[in-house]
Fold:
Amino acid sequence: MVKLSVIVPFYNVQSYAPDTLRSLRANAREDFEFLLVDDCSKDGTPDILERAEREIPGTVLLRHERNGGLATARNTGLDAARGAYITFLDGDDWLAPGYYERLLAAIEGLGVDFVRTDHVQCTARERKVFRVPVGRRGEVLRPRDAILPADRSTSVDYPMAWAGIYRRELLERGLLHFTDGLRTAEDRPWIWRLHREAESFAAVGLLGIFYRRGIASSLTQIGDIRQLDFIRAFDQVLDETTKDPDSDRLLPKAVRTYCAVISHHLGSVERFEPAVARKLRSMSAAALRRMPQDILKDALDSMDAERASRLRRVRRRPMSVSAPSAGADA
Structure:
């Protein structure tokens, strides 16, 4: 029986894939499988992955005939996963030796649906530890209770899928798949659904994932139209949260987070291509108008003056553009 399935999408990361694969080798175990998903790479990545399939125990190579993006690539891995537990890694990040064995021991020892972990962010030579925003460590908690309060960073604001491990039952309940085709913020609807519908989780102070930040080819560094998928992602969060029995309690958090992300993008609008910047402003105005206006007012009133002013200005813009197509290659 496969104990752990590790899903690792790759797209044009020939410079970083060798580090990722070496770290997987240092985590290999006879009951682990590594599902490497090549999302139709155009560089030397496919050759590197083919060698890895031959050389690293438990490795399975899955190929996309056309580029689908990170969410779709992760779904391909989920559909093939056989493990009792599931985790993720990105194709340009890496792990400490033996990390997955410790992570597996954590979730088995706690007996929860999922575990969330800290991580190390790596920017050039700088290393910085980022903690799960959950105060109680190593305790069994109710995920729904970790969504609030609305005015503080909480567990749903730490959405990275690779910072954790998940029981297979969540996959069978439909809670681990991502919204197909989302090119950015794909983990936001995912983390909210997980916290609304899973029954138990824990946060642990286990360091072992090294997240590579600031790569020029990363979508977070590219100001093209794919970045605007965050609006579709947060619209999904709002729609699903509105249908929740606790919507009165949870919607203020969803609205405030959506506003904060809109403000973040508007605050760095100069990195976008001019046409995309115009769409960002118009689509942001439309998104603000779609929100429950009483909750939006409270959210803006509770924000600092700079962010609130930026959002109020864009809300007054004429609404004249439809959502962009998400069909461009990643």
About this structure: The CA atoms of residues 263 and 307 lie 6 Å apart. Confidence is low (pLDDT under 50) at residues 321-330.
